[in-house]
Design a protein that fits this description.
Elements (H helix, E strand, L loop, with lengths): L2 H15 L3 H20 L5 E6 L4 E11 L10 E3 H7 L8 E6 L6 H28 L5 E9 L3 E5 L5 E5 L14 E12 L2 E7 L3 H11 L1 H4 L3 E9 L3 E8 L6 H6 L4 H9 L4 E6 L4 H8 L7 E5 L4 E6 L1 H8 L4 H10 L2 E6 L3 H4 L13 H9 L5 H5 L3 H7 L4 H16 L1
Parallel strand pairs: 2-3, 7-9, 11-12, 14-15
Antiparallel strand pairs: 1-2, 2-4, 5-6, 5-8, 6-7, 8-9, 10-11, 13-14
């Protein structure tokens, strides 16, 4: 097999892998040099001439003529008598260039060349793939479900690239079938061996931010700025927005008439409840807005400790804390302040009793469960329905009924 025939047999890789001819030739030269190193110990005295237009190449071996019997390195030196068989007028000290045919390397070497070429092209593809996805980290991407496994969903894009969506990067309510289109952000690209692993996320705050950019033109155009996003994936999120244009209502523009603009985002996130609030540099006002839908009476800030005491009327406490403490947790993350909710009112005037007063009869962990949802007095619990309390806490209905019995006895006495 002549050199040109061998090159033509390799050309299928260029078509299959969409590699430009110049890149292919550079890979070919690297592969052939490795083969020469294996056969001759070094490729330093070889010239490889590649013609990308014709798809042809030549390999020339350069050696110095030495006297017969004085060859120390057969790869770089040639005896005078052997050199004169190539050209009869060679003299000692002159350079001899001799063409090497690939067939001279042997059949096994040619098969190894082909395998090495495949490996190098895959390596080239992986490097390009790594760079391609590294450049779009943090951007929204859509791919199709190829395989669903217990701990990961394997996705494939239009170019056949594999993307992984780990269980912990999925919204809890997510349910996928083969063939479904899945939207998320490219969160990370890692090299596993020589192969890049592309990781998608649907739980990242960045995903919600990018959905705002995608769905709300004013955000995309930069007229509305997203200052901060915090979320409990699939449950609740808070987004602080601002605008440098006083004519624009950033919250209204993001939510739309009757929630028309934000509805698509909510649906994409598995009906995640999204609060959009106006950003402000006033920390007290920002905390008050972040605790929405609760109405805050007053706030006492401690800038040094980054903490705040938030005073609310009794009926506002449970709203501020939210189901399972979600609202106050997100408000704290959004504002950067540790928030302590304090119920307004005088216990004696209300004829109410702090729940901690019943610590002899009610276990401390039960009292803590009620406190998590903003219920820290006897009457605040007695006003609630048993089923609702069971839903909002980790307590059994029987436990709640027993607590209510103890509390009722206090007022009956």
């Amino acid at each position: 097999m002549e050199n040109i025939a061998l090159i033509e047999s390799f050309s299928e890789f260029k078509d299959d892998k969409l590699i430009d001819r110049v890149t292919l030739m550079a890979i070919l030269e690297d592969v052939f040099r490795n083969a020469l190193k294996k056969k001759y110990g070094s490729d330093d005295n070889f010239d490889i001439i590649i013609n990308p237009d014709k798809g042809d190449m030549e390999i020339w071996r350069n050696r110095v003529v030495v006297a017969d019997g004085e060859v120390e390195d057969p790869n770089s030196q040639i005896e005078l008598s052997e050199a004169r068989r190539i050209e009869p007028d060679f003299e000692v000290g002159e350079d001899v260039s001799e063409e090497v045919k690939l067939i001279d390397l042997g059949r096994r070497a040619i098969l190894a060349l082909r395998q090495n070429l495949i490996s190098k092209i895959h390596e080239h593809d992986n490097t390009n793939l790594y760079k391609q996805f590294k450049d779009i980290i943090g951007e929204i991407y859509t791919a199709e479900v190829h395989h669903v496994r217990p701990k990961v969903v394997i996705l494939v894009d239009d170019d056949g690239n594999e993307i992984v969506l780990p269980k912990e990067k999925q919204i809890p309510s997510d349910f996928f079938r083969k063939g479904d289109n899945v939207k998320g952000i490219i969160e990370n690209v890692e090299l596993k061996g020589n192969k890049p692993q592309i990781v998608m996320s649907r739980t990242s705050e960045k995903f919600l931010e990018k959905l705002f950019e995608q769905e709300i033109p004013e955000v995309f155009d930069g007229l509305i700025i997203i200052k901060k996003v915090v979320r409990i994936p699939g449950e609740k999120a808070k987004v602080a927005v601002d605008s440098y244009d006083d004519r624009i209502d950033p919250v209204g523009a993001c939510v739309g008439m009757k929630g028309s603009r934000i509805h698509g985002i909510v649906r994409e996130l598995g009906n995640e409840n999204i609060d959009v609030i106006n950003f402000t540099t006033n920390p007290s006002l920002l905390i008050s807005r972040a605790l929405s839908p609760a109405k805050v009476s007053s706030i006492k800030l401690n800038e040094e400790t980054k903490s705040a005491e938030v005073f609310l009327k009794l009926e506002e406490v449970s709203k501020a804390i939210g189901r399972g403490g979600q609202n106050i947790k997100l408000a704290s993350q959004l504002t950067g302040f540790e928030l302590d909710v304090i119920r307004e009112g005088n216990v004696a005037e209300d004829d109410d009793v702090e729940l901690t007063e019943f610590s002899d009869e009610i276990d401390g962990w039960i009292i803590d469960e009620f406190a998590k949802i903003g219920l820290d007095t006897a009457k605040s619990i007695l006003k609630q329905e048993v089923a609702d309390l069971a839903r909002r806490t980790d307590l059994e209905e029987e436990t709640i009924i027993e607590v209510m019995r103890i509390l009722k006895e206090e007022f009956e006495d």
